[in-house]
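Archive entry: two folds, one per protein. Generate the first.
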Amino acid sequence: MSPFTSAQVFRSDMEKDLLKALVGYFSTLEKIDEKWREVSASAKNALEALKNFSEQLNSVT
């Protein structure tokens, strides 16, 4: 006979499922955060270039 009750085994399975879901969630969140940082840096560079171009146009006119 098993030393574990069916409730303990079920709880253990639920804990494993929860841990798996949390690991997947935070892994995906980390990837999304990394992508967001890349997009943000790219947008920042584009905005800086646009600002510089605008300043150049203002100095010409």
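Generate the second and append.
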Amino acid sequence: MTTEVENFPVFPEGILGPELMDNMRKQAERFGAEFKNGWVERVDLSKRPFKVTITGMGEVETEAIIIATGASAKLLGIPGEKENMGRGVGTCATCDGFFYRGKKVIVVGGGDSAMEEANFLTKFATEVRIVHRRNELRASKIMQDRAKANEKITWSLNKTPVEVISDGNKVTGLKVRDNETGQEEVLEADGIFVAIGHRPNTEFLNGQVETDEMGYIVVKPGTTETNIPGVFACGDVQDHKYRQAITAAGTGCMAVLDCERFLEGSATHDWSKSL
């Protein structure tokens, strides 16, 4: 989850991501929205009413669905990573950063998220090392400038992570390979945060909704309609380009309006035409 949201309207000083979410939830509840927590096990979109099986609730039938499952952090897929998840390897500096007060940490990645994670971690860690497999960073100039100006941040560029090193109980370092020389070395660290991008959370759909080559849901341009009438998608689950809080919120509003019109059977919209 993003540490601090600085580009959302109405908050000139920025706002913490969890606080923004809580405010949105309270506002929705004020207008009658109901929230129920559960894990979606499977969906059947073959015909209406659609069937959604939810842990603890059983099967629920619905005439329309809005998919807003977002995207999750990608992992490196190297030895020692999964084994040490939660024991020195993480993907959320906001959640776990305070565990590393007075310690050394590594952030893997070269985009905005990696720069933000690194800057946040300097509030606690004595040293934050950014490891990126290329010489060039993908992060925006302002995010790069912030990271480069931070005296606690050091750099290991053009190096590929090879293995997470641990003593059996906790992480002790990250083995990396220099992409030019092929030489390997172990960078000492008490914690490793992976910030290399995201993957859309669409696995539970089992291919029933059209997705692109990266797994993001395909929507009809200018709408939130999927290839299945009555199924809509909004937010990062259908957006790999902008990935901003405000654009996600905007498409959320679009999805609700599209869904409402669908349920009302709007005569001015031909819902039978899919992508």
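Annotation attached to the second fold: The helical segments are 17-30, 93-96, 112-121, 141-149, 245-264. The chain has a mean pLDDT of 92.
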